[in-house]
């Protein structure tokens, strides 16, 4: 290898490089071009962003900050109206079944044949095609035990408390909002027929007088933070449980919560606590949903229909709304006005996973091409053509479902309407009949008005002493030799055109020239890390196939070169800067893969100090631990976003590395953080390599901008995820991969109508891995209601919990965790109190009445409250908390569900003859049998828990030994034994792993072994050793909170 020591290079910059111009970078050595450039890469700290420069046509328009969401300046907006030179749109064939879906009749009242008259200004009474308004109550539910709600006059809500917010976030803390629910008009019960069925009635407990539940709990009243519960012995719930009298649920031993409450009179002698079997069971709800919704495909044509739960396997048919794999909502029946929304406190949010992968039996989004003038859009709000646009005037115009503006149909897109007012080609065009599709875009949608270059991947490898010693340098280099053949591509038969580059670093950086014409790679050392630059342009980013020999030689040499290094210090900021500068120089977007091991204490921009201080945990200063310790990385992140530079960070720490700070750039650029604490090759290599392989190969879009448009009445007001926002509407993602979600919260800015519902359209403009500029469109319509009971009938608790977790995890940046927890409890209590007050039939105060679709809200909420971020045990490191906080922010609903409520399978009940899994059991120690073996999975870990008296045959089948004492607790994979049980179990583990975005390492936990403490942490229905309440105790606490709100 030729090593060219270049402590400070000047030569390559004698002439300005494309892309460098106008980027004020002192110290470049070359002449600095003073001004007059369009400043594509203007620093973000100026008044504008990279997206605002240039002439109006073909750029993304002026910044939208402060602009109203619907009108005014738009990003990537002013395209294609007027000329409308649409070529014949080449269309992918639609499945023939698409044309045969039953459609509601089209409205007949639409204006017809106005040759040049004024556009109709009123909202059509019905939306075209698929969006037939639903009657307010149409959801058959097995739980309904009362008469259907009638839509009789709901009293105007006055004096409803403002929406709560976390202290320090937006507005006063909830606690200061006075007595909620008071002075809100007459109670619903006085309005004629009872408002709603009591969907879930917690039976009054045996032995409990029909009074307050808490009255029968001994001990001091619960303290704030819920640490004052009476001590609870693990496993103390061990009453013999059988099917409960009066319950005929499909699962023995599980109560049927839809049934009328059990008669208190039949109560046996008085136990002091609730029987866990009598409170809502997650397993029961999951199994019921599987039974009720798992057999039929879920069709998206009916507005406001809640999809099956994330735990149910189902097929989706797109009939006009986005699949729940792309969008899940907290409520599928939104309140018509903000007063109702405030009163209920139910968050209105959508969890959006724009590039979600689909199972093989579902059709991926079609690619629609509207020709050279680009996708057809509403003239005013710029919404893209979708099933919510209503055509009129014989097909010459369409009215926007979002803003009602009427737009002329481009001549080349003209089509006649049928007798129902639908375009006759409606079902041949995804953009008129489907919830999700892609648009080809034009050059107008490209940054700087030119088509993007293919993206690049740059691998930046820490070669300091720690990284060499723990083996990661060798592992990464070895793996990359194979992995580079699996870079993402759109057509599996064509080579990926992603280019690659390589950097190694400790406290200096080494760049490598791997040009195909070289016999050997060349190293260039940059030791002046204060002003990072790329010392070579030609030969740094190369095509894998062209430079394969040189790259392999480099990857062979790197581990040898640094094998004897004594350098322990590392830099970090300059590493990202180096990758960023390389992408700038190549004028492309891309992804950096950084493999890093230690706190960057070497003298350099972004240098950090060890500020780990566990004494701050639980204090008002705890929030500082989640905040970055320097602002350097925030600034760097903005620059990365402007370039479309996404950063994925693989951490291999042996001590505190300040994840809160190192994670700023990844979490602002749509990147991921992977963390392998105390990495040891033998036990952790498999997990790391699987993560790396998936991360490199997965579908990803670059330089993405996401915009959510909504119909008049609501708007997107808050966003959660790994992105950057330079204004209030555009979510900028340097990278957006298929695992990432963006959660959007909506608030009312006007009234919604039950007739038209609430519409949203999520448009993501991105550069595909092949360098095409595309738009991914997802449309979603939900119902609107003027009755609270309808809202409470159509919520999705798993999505609400996903939202609450993200909200709370962000709030810890600005508020003490205790306040965050209290606010969550308060908001959920208000949600449930509002239901009790307005929707449930009158009953004794001693009964906790929960809406059917929210009956798991308390148990899941408790899991969020006692999670490591909000209530850590003594053994949870600050880095782990920062890591989990960032991880949860991009989780989809399936991931957050299993993360907060792990999946626990009793393997002794596994039937090897069947493909079905045994029914899961609840996450509580008392559910574990000493004679059993259990698999627990939470999306990050898999545990195999082995009871001390596990049957010998079971152990023999799994471990190849009948003796409990002979099981090696250090094994990370099960022996491949030649018996059906072993095969089936390993299949199950593999299939569980395949469902998750991160590889889960297997840990074997023997009962009564010291590792069991870790395992018990995931038994989330039990009291935790960090002070988190048990489910039973927390439910009592919630009940008390609700009763306080009601009294
Ligand atoms: Zn519009």
Chart the SSEs and their pairings.
Elements (H helix, E strand, L loop, with lengths): L1 E4 L194 E2 L80 H12 L4 E2 L16 E2 L9 E3 L3 E3 L2 H7 L4 E4 L13 E3 L21 E3 L4 E3 L6 E3 L21 H4 L2 E5 L15 E7 L2 H5 L2 H12 L15 E7 L3 E5 L8 E5 L17 H18 L11 H14 L3 E7 L25 H5 L5 H12 L1 E7 L7 H4 L1 H5 L4 E3 L5 H17 L2 E11 L3 E7 L10 E7 L4 E7 L9 E10 L5 E13 L2 H6 L3 H15 L5 H22 L10 E2 L6 H9 L12 H11 L4 H8 L2 E4 L26 E5 L3 E6 L5 H8 L20 H16 L5 E6 L5 H5 L14 H16 L1
Parallel strand pairs: 1-16, 3-4, 6-25, 8-12, 13-14, 13-17, 17-18, 18-19, 29-30
Antiparallel strand pairs: 2-26, 5-7, 7-23, 9-10, 10-11, 12-25, 14-15, 15-16, 20-22, 20-24, 21-23, 24-25, 27-28, 28-29
Helix pairs in contact: 5-6, 5-12, 7-9, 14-16, 14-18, 15-16, 15-22, 19-20
The structure holds zinc ion.
Textual characterization of the structure:
The chain has 1047 residues and is an alpha/beta fold. Helices cover 22% and strands 15% of the residues. It contains 22 helices and 30 strands. The strands form seven sheets. It has an eight-stranded mixed beta sheet with strand order 1-16-15-14-13-17-18-19, sandwiched between helices. It is globular and about 80 Å long. Bound molecules: zinc ion (ZN). The site of zinc ion has 8 residues, from loops. Keywords: Cytoplasmic vesicle, Protein transport, Transport.
Supply database-style keywords.
1047 residues, alpha/beta, eight-stranded mixed beta sheet, seven-stranded mixed beta sheet, 30 strands, binds zinc ion
Backbone shape: globular
Ligand identities: zinc ion
Strand order of the largest sheet: 1-16-15-14-13-17-18-19
What is the strand tally?
Answer: 30
Overall pLDDT level: 80
**Straight-line N-to-C gap:** 79 Å
Radius of gyration equals: 30 Å
Residue ranges: pLDDT <50 for 5 or more in a row?
Answer: 5-200, 202-271
State which percent range the strand residues make up: 5-15%
Structural class: alpha/beta
The largest β sheet comes out as:
8 strands, mixed
Q: Which percent range fits the helix content?
A: 10-25%
User: Given the structure, what is the number of helices?
Assistant: 22
Subcellular location: Cytoplasm, Cytosol; Cytoplasmic vesicle, COPII-coated vesicle membrane; Endoplasmic reticulum membrane
Domain Sec23/Sec24 trunk: 452-696
Domain Gelsolin-like: 918-989
Main location: cytoplasm
């Amino acid at each position: 290898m030729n090593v060219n020591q270049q402590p400070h290079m000047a030569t390559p910059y004698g002439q300005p490089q494309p892309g460098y111009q106008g980027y004020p970078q002192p110290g470049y050595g070359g002449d600095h071009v003073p001004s007059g450039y369009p400043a594509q890469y203007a620093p973000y700290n100026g008044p504008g962003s990279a997206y605002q420069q240039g002439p109006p046509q073909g750029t993304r328009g002026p910044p939208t900050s402060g602009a109203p969401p619907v009108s005014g300046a738009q990003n990537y907006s002013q395209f294609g109206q007027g000329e409308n030179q649409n070529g014949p749109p080449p269309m992918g064939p639609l499945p023939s079944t698409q044309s045969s879906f039953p459609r509601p009749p089209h409205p007949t009242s639409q204006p017809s044949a106005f040759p040049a008259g004024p556009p109709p200004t009123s909202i059509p009474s019905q939306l075209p095609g698929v969006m037939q308004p639903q009657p307010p109550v149409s959801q058959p539910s097995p739980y309904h035990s009362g008469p259907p709600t009638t839509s009789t006059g709901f009293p105007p809500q006055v004096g409803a408390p403002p929406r709560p917010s976390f202290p320090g976030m937006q507005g006063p803390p909830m606690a200061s909002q006075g007595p909620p629910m008071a002075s809100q008009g007459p109670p619903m019960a006085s309005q004629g027929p009872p408002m709603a069925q009591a969907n879930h009635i917690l039976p009054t407990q045996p032995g409990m007088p029909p009074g307050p539940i808490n009255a029968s709990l001994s001990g001091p009243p619960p303290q704030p933070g819920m640490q004052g519960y009476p001590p609870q012995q693990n496993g103390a719930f061990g009453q013999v449980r059988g099917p409960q009298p009066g319950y005929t649920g499909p699962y023995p031993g599980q109560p049927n919560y839809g049934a009328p409450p059990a008669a208190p009179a039949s109560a046996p002698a008085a136990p002091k606590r609730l029987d866990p079997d009598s409170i809502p069971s997650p397993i029961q709800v999951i199994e019921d949903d599987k039974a009720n919704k798992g057999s039929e495909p879920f069709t998206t044509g009916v507005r406001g229909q809640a999809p099956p739960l994330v735990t149910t396997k189902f097929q989706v048919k797109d009939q006009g709304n986005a699949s729940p794999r792309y969008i899940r909502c907290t409520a599928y029946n939104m309140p018509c006005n903000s007063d109702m929304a405030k009163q209920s406190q139910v968050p209105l949010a959508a969890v959006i996973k724009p590039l979600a992968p689909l199972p093989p039996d579902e059709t991926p989004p079609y690619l629609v091409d509207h020709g050279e003038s680009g996708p057809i859009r509403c003239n005013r709000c710029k919404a893209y053509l979708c099933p919510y646009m209503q055509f009129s005037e014989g097909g010459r115009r369409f009215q926007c479902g979002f803003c009602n503006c009427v737009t002329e149909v481009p001549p080349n897109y003209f089509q006649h309407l049928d007798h129902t007012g639908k375009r006759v080609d409606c079902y041949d065009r995804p953009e008129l009949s489907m919830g999700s599709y892609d648009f080809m875009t034009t050059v107008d949608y490209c940054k700087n008005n030119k088509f993007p270059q293919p993206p690049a991947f740059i691998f930046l490898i820490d070669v300091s002493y720690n990284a060499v010693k723990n083996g990661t340098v060798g592992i990464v280099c070895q793996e990359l030799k194979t992995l580079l053949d699996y870079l993402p591509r759109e057509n599996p038969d064509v080579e990926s055109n992603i280019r690659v580059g390589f950097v190694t670093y400790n406290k200096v950086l080494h760049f490598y020239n791997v040009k195909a014409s070289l016999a050997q790679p060349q190293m260039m050392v940059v030791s002046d890390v204060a002003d990072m630059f790329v010392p070579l342009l030609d030969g740094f980013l190369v095509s894998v196939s062209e430079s394969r020999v040189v790259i392999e030689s480099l990857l062979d040499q790197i581990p040898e070169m640094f094998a004897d290094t004594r350098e322990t210090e590392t830099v970090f900021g300059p590493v990202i800067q180096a990758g960023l500068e390389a992408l700038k120089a190549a004028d492309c977007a891309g992804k950096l893969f950084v493999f890093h091991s230690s706190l960057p204490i070497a003298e350099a921009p972004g240098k950090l100090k060890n500020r780990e201080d566990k004494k701050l945990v639980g204090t008002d200063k705890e929030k500082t631990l989640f905040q970055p310790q320097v602002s350097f990385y925030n600034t760097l992140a903005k620059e990365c976003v402007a370039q479309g530079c996404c950063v994925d960070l693989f951490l291999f720490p042996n001590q505190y590395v300040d994840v809160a700070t190192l994670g700023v750039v990844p979490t602002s650029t749509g990147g991921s953080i992977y963390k392998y604490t105390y990495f040891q090759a033998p036990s952790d290599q498999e997990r790391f390599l699987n993560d790396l392989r998936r991360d490199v190969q997965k579908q990803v879009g670059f330089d993405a901008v996401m915009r959510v448009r909504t119909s008049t009445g609501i708007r997107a007001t808050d966003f959660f995820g790994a992105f950057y926002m330079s204004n209030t509407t555009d979510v900028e993602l340097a990278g957006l991969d298929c695992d990432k979600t963006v959660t959007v919260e909506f608030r009312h800015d006007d009234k919604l109508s039950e007739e038209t519902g609430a519409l949203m359209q999520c448009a993501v403009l991105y550069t595909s891995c092949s360098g095409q500029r595309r738009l991914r469109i997802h449309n979603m319509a939900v119902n609107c209601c003027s009755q609270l009971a309808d809202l409470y009938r159509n919520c999705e608790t798993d999505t609400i919990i996903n939202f609450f977790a993200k909200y709370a995890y962000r709030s810890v940046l600005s508020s003490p965790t205790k306040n965050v927890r209290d606010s969550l409890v308060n908001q959920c209590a208000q949600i449930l109190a509002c239901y009790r007050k307005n929707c449930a039939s009158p009953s004794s105060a001693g009964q906790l009445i929960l809406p059917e679709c929210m009956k798991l809200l308390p148990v899941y909420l408790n899991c969020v409250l006692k999670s490591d971020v909000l209530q850590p045990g003594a053994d949870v490191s600050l880095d782990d908390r920062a890591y989990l906080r960032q991880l949860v922010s991009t989780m989809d609903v399936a991931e957050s569900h299993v993360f907060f409520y792990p999946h626990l399978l009793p393997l002794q009940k596994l039937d090897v003859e069947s493909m079905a899994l045994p029914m899961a059991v609840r996450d509580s120690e008392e559910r574990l049998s000493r004679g059993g073996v259990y698999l627990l999975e939470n999306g990050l870990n898999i545990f195999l828990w082995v009871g001390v008296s596990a049957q010998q045959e079971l152990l023999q089948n799994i471990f190849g030994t009948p003796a409990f004492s002979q099981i090696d607790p250090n094994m990370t994979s099960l022996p491949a034994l030649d018996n059906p049980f072993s095969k089936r179990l390993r299949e199950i583990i593999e299939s569980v792993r395949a469902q998750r975005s991160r590889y889960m390492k297997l840990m074997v936990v023997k009962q009564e072994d010291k590792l069991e403490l870790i395992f018990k942490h995931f038994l989330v229905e039990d009291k935790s050793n960090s002070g988190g309440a048990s489910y039973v105790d927390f439910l009592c606490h919630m009940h008390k909170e609700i009763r306080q709100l009601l009294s």
